[in-house]
């Protein structure tokens, strides 16, 4: 009996694992699954264009194959394309990619995105995805599947042609079951609209299953700054990260040198200070010999030293003007205000920036109810897990009445919040909501209040204008009667002249 | 420039992936992380004892190493132990195990559980876990870590001794950072109490960091039925599952034979019926040649045939008596009622069973507020993601007032709901809440209403008793006065005799 227990002991591949646990990749619920697919492809397109310094032009098609069940999704970009050497792995192998190991402000999941979509297509319709990649003068067309047992790409129907080197881009198309298209706040259309709002340098076109064509042309010329890899700050890491770094980065014979070169704000003087705090740890040791215990002590000492805050140039905001232009472009509001606040630090060592845009009036209400909160992390829209998100909660807790917004949920007001950081504090695996880190929440609140004050100015201006005009009208109603009464009382005055003088006085008063 | 983009293209291991995405394994938040660790070990112990036919005796220790930060967790069982050949992989390799491939009613995650704990220990404290396994006359002690790059176990400090073959079991101990012990509804203590409630055949002891010792002795002698692998029902599968089956199961030259032998309820006649519905598909084909298109057609035809419902003996309830005994044991209530309803089917092909136990009065309220809902899936307590769970929502929607429970949240009432199935419809990766499948929700509601009616009987009995006794007392108050008044009016009657006759009449009436 006991021997049988281990009979079935097996190893299985990560592709098999995610095939069984596809919810972990955002494939849960038909609507969310469709949005996830578009999100993964569009994110890859934006990131690839960003890295290659190209103005993104992205066109998305969603076609109904079977209502509320099966849809074709196609995403075509003008990015750098993918060379054949990497194409299979990029789209047909889990846990392969360029994004995983870097400490850089990024959008995407980590090397699963597009391969996850291929998996979903195979699992729900049995079809591989079709890819056309133009890169370096070569146009490669093929179908891509996954060998789940081996977690390896399966390439078929390969066709190679020459193409002009100035033509480049990726064009992916797949048919996905267990999906549903809905024109809701969590659907593809809203996802793309919001993506366009925070990427005004990109041109995005969406062809919906209802044969609508939505065009979001680019509204600014400048490309966003490129995200760069940054060195960690001593207050932003844990013992485990220090050990990882000591094991990964080669070429140092002394830990002290590694600390000075691989961290930001660690000077020779700071190393000395640390050494004084650590009589049992020799910072001159070989990094390869660093033990957990020592790493823990060093991180403990990090907490006791006074550090200059990390440089914040690693955080790349969308930009005040950019957000303003695209809010005007897309929502056509009567008022827009966007904060341009400096970056802040959370947990003492992790820089981040919060941008809040607020728009009032115009087409906002026609988009649904009032009080829209659009959440973004590193320019990627967050559409799910709304309730637990620090952005939503903070927006709820702001006393909007103070800013003349009497009923936030009913008035034509939209807030956009983008949190940018190398390390966004997500609440969970789904990466759809931001955790309530104190420093982050405080900054979101302050930015919202700043935005609120501007709306207040606008609205109280409007209110005073309205009140004035009401008063004036009320007084004006008496002018006729008053002038003729006065003319009569005075016996000889001319009613008309009197009326015109009175009117003049009132006009002057209420100008 | 473009060439640089792919410079960082890398593959990485599943262990590295989960190290970065530990929330996916339930390691999010300090309290939840600690509960997850205990859950993974205890689940493995219960499953191992179950498979070996052993009455589980499990002892759990949680010791504070650093308050609200670092705790030692030790779990010792009397299960079969793990032979050295499998020990490393079971505790130090992701995606290895016995549970992944089987279609069987099970508790645990899929081959990540214990290895995930080892990962968490390494990442938060740098320490491997310590293991003592007694199996087949050998006692093996060692430390176990993970080589993250290779996703391979690292075994050290290995010691092997002989031991009497009748001694067996596993004893795992680790130190885990980023954890917090709290005596709350989501903490280890509540987790173990609830585990004890639904596993009355197991003896569970918990030694808390506050040096309390909670003992939950076994309250029933019979071991639960063993979960067995079952064949799928045609209505419970999708094209992808059919293709998997056709690819995996060897030895069939004809698809029709595979259908008859690898599915439940598929007879020769049914195959003929299917063939008539599928003029373009030859069910006599070699299963290896099954295409997605044909699989899709076959699954479509499955939906058009009238099937006998699947056998439901694969679903193993805890049992009416068992739940009743343990609710009495642990909550000491004045009333307990447990439903003993037959299994049902959802989506036409997946059997499941719902057990609802209700307890009223006794120690329930002392455990916190009233209106406790204890959720379980295949006997494993669900403590997180409460809001979205079909069990919680259904409990909220039941009109408890009809059952004399005026304010569910305030009264001393506890409901236990266990959903058992080979395929629990979880809402998300965390496996902490059950999706609102119509058939499942309906059955939960019916079971709750059945339980409600029994509480109503009890409570309305109590209420009537109370009302009677109030009335009787009220009437009795008049008896003395009435008898002496009557004696006086009658002139000659004896007041005492009259009073005793009146009292007799009233007593009789209110008996």
Verbal overview:
- Chain A has 511 residues and is α+β, with helices and mostly antiparallel strands.
- Chain A has four domains: 14-216, Histidine kinase-like ATPase, C-terminal domain (Heat Shock Protein 90), CATH 3.30.565; 234-302, Helicase, Ruva Protein, domain 3 (Orthogonal Bundle); 320-458, Ribosomal Protein S5, domain 2; 464-509.
- Helices cover 37% and strands 20% of the residues of chain A.
- Chain A has an eight-stranded mixed β-sheet with strand order 7-6-5-8-3-2-9-10. In chain A, strands 11, 12, 13, 14, 15 and 16 form a six-stranded mixed β-sheet that branches.
- The N and C termini of chain A lie far apart (97 Å).
- Chains A and B meet through strand 1, helix 1, helix 2, helix 3 and strand 4 of A and strand 1, helix 1, helix 2, helix 3 and strand 4 of B.
């Amino acid at each position: 009996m006991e021997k049988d227990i281990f009979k079935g002991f097996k190893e299985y591949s990560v592709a098999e694992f995610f095939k069984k646990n596809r919810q972990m990749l955002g494939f849960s619920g038909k609507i969310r699954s469709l949005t996830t697919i578009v999100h993964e492809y569009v994110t890859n397109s934006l990131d690839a264009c960003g890295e290659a310094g190209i103005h993104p032009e992205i066109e998305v098609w969603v076609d109904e194959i079977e209502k509320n069940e099966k849809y074709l999704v196609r995403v075509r970009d003008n990015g750098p394309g993918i060379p054949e050497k990497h194409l299979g792995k990029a789209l047909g192998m889990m846990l392969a990619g360029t994004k995983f190991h870097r400490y850089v402000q990024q959008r995407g999941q980590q090397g699963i995105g597009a391969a996850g979509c291929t998996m979903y297509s195979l699992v729900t319709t049995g079809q591989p995805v079709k890819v056309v990649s133009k890169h370096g003068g070569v146009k490669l067309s093929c179908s891509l599947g996954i060998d789940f047992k081996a977690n390896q790409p399966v390439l078929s129907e390969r066709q190679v042609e020459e193409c002009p080197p100035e033509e480049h881009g990726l064009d992916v198309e797949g048919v996905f079951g267990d999906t549903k298209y809905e024109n809701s706040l969590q659907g593809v259309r809203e996802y793309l609209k919001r993506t366009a709002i925070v990427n005004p340098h990109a041109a995005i076109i969406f062809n919906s299953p209802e044969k609508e064509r939505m065009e979001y042309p680019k509204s600014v010329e400048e490309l966003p700054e490129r995200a760069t890899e940054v060195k960690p700050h001593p207050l932003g890491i844990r013992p485990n990260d220090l050990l990882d770094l000591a094991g990964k980065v080669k070429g140092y014979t002394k830990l002290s040198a590694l600390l000075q070169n691989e961290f930001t704000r660690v000077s020779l003087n700071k190393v000395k200070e640390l050494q004084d705090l650590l009589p049992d740890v020799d910072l001159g040791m070989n990094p390869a010999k660093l033990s957990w215990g020592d790493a823990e002590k060093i991180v403990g000492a990090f907490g006791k030293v006074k550090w200059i805050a990390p440089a914040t140039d690693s955080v790349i905001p969308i930009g005040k003007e950019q957000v303003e232009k695209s809010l005007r472009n897309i929502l056509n509001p009567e008022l827009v205000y966007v904060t341009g606040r400096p970056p802040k630090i959370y947990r003492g060592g992790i820089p981040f920036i919060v941008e809040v845009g607020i728009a009032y009036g115009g087409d906002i209400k026609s988009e649904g109810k009032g009080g829209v909160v659009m959440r973004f992390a590193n320019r990627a829209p967050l559409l799910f897990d709304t309730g637990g998100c620090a952005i939503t909660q903070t927006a709820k807790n702001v006393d909007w009445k103070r800013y003349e917004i009497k009923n936030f949920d009913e008035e034509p007001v939209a807030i956009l919040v983008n949190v940018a950081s190398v390390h966004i504090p997500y609440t969970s695996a789904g990466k759809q909501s931001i955790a309530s880190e104190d420093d982050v929440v405080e900054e979101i609140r302050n930015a919202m209040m700043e935005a609120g004050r501007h709306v207040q100015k606008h609205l109280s201006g409007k209110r005073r204008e309205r009140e004035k005009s009401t008063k004036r009208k009320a007084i004006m109603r008496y002018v006729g009667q008053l002038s003729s009464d006065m003319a009569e009382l005075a016996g000889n005055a001319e009613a008309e002249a009197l009326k015109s003088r009175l009117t003049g006085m009132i006009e002057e008063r209420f100008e």
